């Protein structure tokens, strides 16, 4: 299960958080933990360089893209490798929507589109679409090109 | 120069002003949502409002029921718009707002219409929304469309239906299981993602049908799997099939191993890792099978991507637990990871190295770790400390450098949990490695000179009081202890006073000086410190409290024979209703009340270093000893020699859960039956176990202690005691029946009925075996210990163990048969070796030390031969060990 996708700005404020199968009372704990993890480790990291951590049996892969940091959390079959696949899809889609690595303003400008992309990529904790061109078409309700 | 700077600032202000969500407020956005009701819909404006709502939801904002209903009804109006972008937003919004069951009906018809739309993408999205909000009744109505969608030509529609199926399987399994033909067809799809989703769903549908899973794996491993993700799933299912089918005994081949090995050469890293992990996790994996997997993992250790390094070292860390020798080739690569920027990777590398390292590499490793420790967080440090503790127990001869390392890190900065882990480790090493005792105690003494944690100080003082007086020069510890009386807070001071008293009681030469120190404590400004000092002075001095030396020691070191909970209850009662006469400790009941489940589990845990505070038991053994000594019927049996691990006498999840702990005394055994009643509607009373010992001739029953009441989910114990010939390792088989009176309980009130019915419940048999009479006690230096035993007590013989699966299996079987402690890591057999020497140590009933040297050899036909050499303090015991092996 892909437990969470969280996107924060450089100050650690949450821009998007989507939890799946995480009880409401644990969400704040996760949010704080991830933001701290980012603050401790993401300084000076290049765009899209993936960092990894584990907390008990849960894996976390995170990275930075422009002004935003992206965290994905998973367990069981969503181990560090599956998560790096998921985060790769997310970063590619973000760059595609924003045209470049986003500034915070650009990210907020494109907020609606980004939500739609995330909805196509992760659905209730399962990875659904992985190809950026397909995602780009799906958010505009266009069928995929290969069809 | 100033101009551009000002301009930049202006820009920044603009940027902030421009943020579409600046000052966003829920109430205002809900007001804005009224535009959804306009007769002339402005699609762009509506999309903006939905974006704002999504922003609020994604920030963790919650809507009240009324607010959510309002938004939901308004959003459903937007189905009137033909704007495609807005429609996509509407789908997302409905999913995010999750309407309640009674509201769903409003959108069902719109969604059903979209589901049959000619526009494929409407179909896909409508399926996803419907599945998110639907319940069982609606699902049967749309099932037909979903089945069609699974085999739809458009991959997005098919995937939407399949992923919906995966989610719906949790809530409506019987419906989704009917789709297996369609899903089967989708597995053959040419679209990569459809195949991936279909494979996942098909496996979930058929996971309990071994044959079907095996067929699925057989057909797919031959054919083309189109995406790396699906390939990973297939590898997982393949390893499940391998686990269930076992090795082909004739050829020695493992089915599907070739497939896994081929996957190691796949172009996607994800697949390579999955295959490597699958291979390393095979049951009884051989070195030949393991080698290719380890080789690819080793390559990834030097990858430039942190995720790959992490994945590789994490897998190797797991392998190191079961096959340390297989990982040694990677040690050099792993040593370079100690300086990895990613601390998770560095910690995994270190703990792996600590498991795979040999005795000669310990010193080098410790040097590297020392540099690393200063820049990792406490949680990682604790993992390292625990790994060092196990390494030290594995190589006791290296205790000096490891103990020095522990004492150095003890002096550095760190939080409570970290310090506690270090102190616990030192205490365990002191207990298990006699040579490490004096040095270890001094390290602890130095630590309490500057320890900010009261809990740790008092624990160490307690431990020091028990162990310090038994050392060669007890006087050297007094300074450290008395310093506490001068410098610390009242709690620590009181502990220090008790510790001083213990030294006084045990070491006669120190007694006068201890008296001087204790007298100084009489002027302390804390009541407890003064009281303790007075009490101990009287106890040790004039004999007014205890008359004989034995009584003094019993008073100071003996366990408090009363369960603390009983003591607490009695004291509370006394305070509530004070009597004229002083509180009498003898009035506290000694019977152990049944403990709640959670507490029970806690006591069953592996004992940690210092264990609980002074008055509480320090380990499971101590707890058992206290428990048994509190029962008058068993008090005369003498000192408890050994308690076995619990043996389960019932299957898991039965009405009554019962396990037995075998307590061995010199001429008695006591069986402690731990019973749990798992039926809320029942109360059991007068619970006993009827034991049939007809297959245990040397045992005769001498008493039982029934359990008065066994309520639901509250474990409690009943006991049966047997007499046996003194000092003899009598063996036998015991059959058991649980007998009790059962009363119905009204679960609403918790009151049992007055009348009960007698009933019986058959339990499994268990045996008392030779290993029950041998304590696992290690020695730090086997060679020295062996040579210090009288050579005349040595008995040597050779045995044929017959054909065995492997050498390791034979070694384990003998270790388990004898129940002795393997020394110096000799229980680990190198996976391809043909011979092995294993060293065991233990204490035989009657407190006779015994050492065993086992030499094994295996031939081509897997026949194992063993030479057994035994030395002990009593030649009869050497013979007895041979008898155990000969009859086992």
From TrEMBL, chain A:
- Tell me which Pfam families the record gives: Clat_adaptor_s
What name does the UniProt record give this protein?
Answer: Coatomer subunit zeta
Stretches assigned to the AP complex mu/sigma subunit domain: 1-138
Its domain of life? Eukaryota
Swiss-Prot/TrEMBL keywords: Cytoplasm, Cytoplasmic vesicle, ER-Golgi transport, Golgi apparatus, Membrane, Protein transport, Transport
What is stated as this protein's family in its record? Belongs to the adaptor complexes small subunit family.
**According to its UniProt record, where is this protein located?**
Cytoplasm; Golgi apparatus membrane; Cytoplasmic vesicle, COPI-coated vesicle membrane
Q: How does it sit in the membrane?
A: Peripheral membrane protein
GO-annotated biological processes: protein transport; retrograde vesicle-mediated transport, Golgi to endoplasmic reticulum
| Major place of residence | cytoplasm
Q: Name the source organism.
A: Penstemon smallii
Oligomeric form and interacting partners: Oligomeric complex that consists of at least the alpha, beta, beta', gamma, delta, epsilon and zeta subunits.
Q: What does this protein do?
A: The zeta subunit may be involved in regulating the coat assembly and, hence, the rate of biosynthetic protein transport due to its association-dissociation properties with the coatomer complex.
**InterPro entries associated with the record:** AP_mu_sigma_su, Coatomer_zeta, Longin-like_dom_sf
TrEMBL record, chain B:
Q: Which InterPro entries match?
A: ARM-like (IPR011989), ARM-type_fold (IPR016024), Clathrin/coatomer_adapt-like_N (IPR002553), Clathrin_app_Ig-like_sf (IPR013041), Coatomer/calthrin_app_sub_C (IPR009028), Coatomer_g_Cpla (IPR032154), Coatomer_gsu (IPR017106), Coatomer_gsu_app_Ig-like_dom (IPR013040)
Q: Does the keyword tRNA-binding apply?
A: no
Q: Which residues form the Coatomer subunit gamma C-terminal domain?
A: 771-885
State the UniProt keywords alphabetically. Answer: Cytoplasm, Cytoplasmic vesicle, ER-Golgi transport, Golgi apparatus, Membrane, Protein transport, Repeat, Transport
Stretches of Low complexity bias are at: 605-617
UniProt topology in membrane? Peripheral membrane protein
Tell me one GO biological process term.
vesicle-mediated transport
Question: What family, per the record?
Answer: Belongs to the COPG family.
Say what the protein does. Answer: The coatomer is a cytosolic protein complex that binds to dilysine motifs and reversibly associates with Golgi non-clathrin-coated vesicles, which further mediate biosynthetic protein transport from the ER, via the Golgi up to the trans Golgi network. Coatomer complex is required for budding from Golgi membranes, and is essential for the retrograde Golgi-to-ER transport of dilysine-tagged proteins.
Q: PANTHER family recorded for this chain?
A: COATOMER SUBUNIT GAMMA (PTHR10261), COATOMER SUBUNIT GAMMA-2 (PTHR10261:SF0)
**Protein's name according to its UniProt entry:** Coatomer subunit gamma
Organismal lineage = Eukaryota, Viridiplantae, Streptophyta, Embryophyta, Tracheophyta
């Amino acid at each position: 299960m892909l437990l969470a996708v969280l996107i924060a700005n450089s100050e650690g404020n949450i821009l998007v958080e989507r939890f799946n199968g995480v009880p409401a009372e644990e969400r704040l704990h996760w949010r704080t933990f991830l933001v701290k993890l980012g603050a401790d480790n993401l300084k000076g990291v290049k765009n899209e360089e993936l960092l990894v951590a584990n907390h008990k049996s849960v894996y976390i892969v995170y990275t930075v893209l422009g002004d935003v940091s992206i965290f994905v959390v998973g367990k069981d079959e969503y181990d560090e490798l599956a998560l790096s696949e998921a985060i790769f899809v997310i970063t590619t889609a973000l760059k595609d929507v924003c045209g470049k690595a986003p500034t915070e303003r650009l990210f907020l400008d494109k907020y609606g589109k980004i939500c739609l992309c995330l909805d196509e990529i992760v659905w209730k904790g399962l990875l659904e679409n992985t190809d950026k061109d397909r995602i780009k078409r799906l958010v505009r309700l266009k069928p995929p090109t290969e069809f | 120069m100033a101009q551009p700077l000002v301009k930049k600032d202006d820009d920044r202000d603009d940027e902030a002003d421009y943020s579409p969500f600046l000052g966003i407020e829920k109430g205002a956005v809900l007001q804005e949502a009224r535009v959804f009701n306009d007769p002339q819909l402005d699609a762009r404006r509506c999309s903006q409002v939905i974006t704002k709502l999504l922003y609020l939801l994604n920030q963790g904002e919650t809507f009240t029921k009324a607010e959510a209903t309002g938004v939901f009804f308004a959003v459903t109006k937007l189905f009137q718009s033909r704007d495609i972008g807005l429609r996509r937003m509407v789908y997302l919004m409905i999913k995010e707002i999750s309407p309640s069951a009674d509201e769903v009906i409003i959108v069902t018809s719109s969604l059903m219409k979209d589901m049959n739309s000619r526009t494929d993408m409407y179909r896909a999205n409508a399926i996803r929304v419907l599945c998110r909000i639907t319940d069982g009744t609606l699902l049967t109505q749309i099932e037909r469309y979903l089945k069609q969608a699974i085999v739809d030509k458009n991959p997005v529609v098919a995937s939407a239906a399949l992923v919906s199926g995966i989610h719906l399987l949790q809530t409506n399994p019987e419906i989704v299981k009917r789709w297996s033909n369609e899903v089967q067809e989708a597995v053959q799809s040419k679209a990569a993602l459809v195949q991936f989703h279909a494979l996942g769903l098909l496996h979930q549908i058929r996971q309990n049908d071994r044959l079907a899973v095996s067929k699925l794996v057989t057909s797919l491993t031959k054919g083309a799997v189109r995406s790396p993700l699906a390939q990973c799933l297939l590898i997982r299912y393949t390893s499940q099939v391998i686990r269930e089918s076992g090795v082909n005994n004739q050829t020695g081949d493992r089915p599907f191993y070739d497939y896994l090995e081929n996957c190691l050469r796949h172009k996607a890293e994800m697949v390579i890792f999955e295959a490597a992990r699958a291979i390393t996790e095979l049951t009884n994996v051989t070195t030949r099978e393991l080698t290719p997997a380890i080789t690819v993992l080793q390559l990834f250790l030097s990858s430039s991507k942190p995720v790959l390094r992490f994945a590789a070292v994490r897998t190797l860390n797991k392998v190191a637990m079961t096959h340390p020798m297989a990982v040694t080739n990677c040690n050099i690569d792993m040593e370079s990871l100690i300086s990895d920027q990613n601390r998770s990777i560095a910690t995994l590398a270190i703990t792996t190295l600590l498991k795979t390292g040999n005795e000669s590499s310990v010193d080098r490793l410790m040097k590297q770790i020392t540099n690393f420790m200063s820049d990792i967080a406490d949680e990682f440090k604790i993992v390292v400390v625990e790994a060092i503790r196990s390494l030290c127990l594995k190589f006791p001869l290296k205790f000096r450098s490891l103990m020095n390392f522990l004492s150095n890190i003890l002096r550095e900065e760190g939080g409570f949990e970290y310090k506690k882990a270090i102190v616990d480790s030192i205490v365990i090493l002191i207990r298990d490695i006699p040579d490490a005792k004096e040095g270890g105690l001094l390290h602890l003494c130095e630590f309490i000179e500057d320890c900010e944690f009261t809990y740790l100080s008092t624990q160490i003082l307690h431990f020091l009081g028990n162990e310090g007086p038994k050392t060669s020069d007890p006087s050297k510890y007094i300074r450290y202890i008395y310093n506490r009386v001068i410098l610390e807070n009242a709690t620590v001071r009181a502990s220090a006073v008790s510790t001083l008293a213990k030294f006084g009681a045990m070491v006669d030469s120190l007694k006068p000086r201890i008296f001087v120190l204790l007298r100084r404590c009489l002027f302390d400004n804390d009541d407890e410190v003064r009281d303790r000092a007075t009490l101990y002075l009287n106890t040790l001095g004039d004999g007014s409290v205890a008359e004989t030396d034995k009584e003094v020691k019993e008073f100071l070191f003996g366990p408090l024979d009363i369960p603390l909970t009983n003591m607490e209850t009695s004291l509370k009662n006394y305070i509530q209703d004070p009597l004229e006469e002083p509180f009498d400790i003898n009035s506290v009941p000694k019977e152990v009340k049944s403990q709640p489940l959670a507490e029970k589990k806690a006591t069953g845990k592996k004992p940690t270093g210092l264990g609980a505070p002074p008055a509480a038991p320090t380990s499971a053994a101590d707890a058992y000893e206290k428990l048994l000594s509190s029962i008058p019927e068993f008090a005369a049996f003498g000192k408890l020699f050994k308690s076995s691990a619990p043996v389960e006498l019932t299957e898991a999840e039965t009405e009554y859960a019962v396990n037995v702990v075998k307590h061995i005394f010199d001429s008695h055994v006591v069986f402690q039956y731990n019973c749990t009643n798992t039926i809320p509607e029942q109360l059991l009373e007068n619970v006993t176990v009827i034991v049939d010992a007809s297959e245990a001739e040397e045992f005769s029953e001498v008493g039982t202690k029934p359990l008065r009441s066994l309520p639901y989910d509250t474990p409690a114990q009943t006991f049966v005691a047997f007499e046996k010939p003194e000092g003899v390792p009598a063996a036998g088989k015991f059959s058991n029946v649980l007998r009790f009176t059962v009363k119905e309980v009204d679960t609403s009130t918790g009151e049992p009925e007055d009348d009960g019915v007698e009933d019986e419940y058959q339990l499994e048999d268990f045996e008392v075996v030779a290993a029950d009479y041998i304590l696992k006690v290690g020695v730090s230096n086997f060679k020295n210990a062996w040579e210090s035993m009288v050579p005349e007590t040595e008995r040597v013989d050779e045995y044929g163990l017959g054909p065995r699966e492997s050498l390791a299996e034979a070694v384990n079987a003998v270790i388990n048969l004898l129940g002795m402690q393997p020394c110096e890591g000799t229980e680990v057999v190198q996976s391809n070796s043909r011979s092995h020497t294993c060293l065991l140590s233990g204490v035989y009933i009657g407190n006779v030390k015994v050492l065993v040297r086992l030499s094994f050899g295996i031939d081509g036909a897997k026949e194992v031969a063993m030479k057994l050499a035994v030395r002990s303090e009593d030649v009869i015991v050497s013979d007895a060990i041979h008898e155990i092996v000969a009859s086992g």
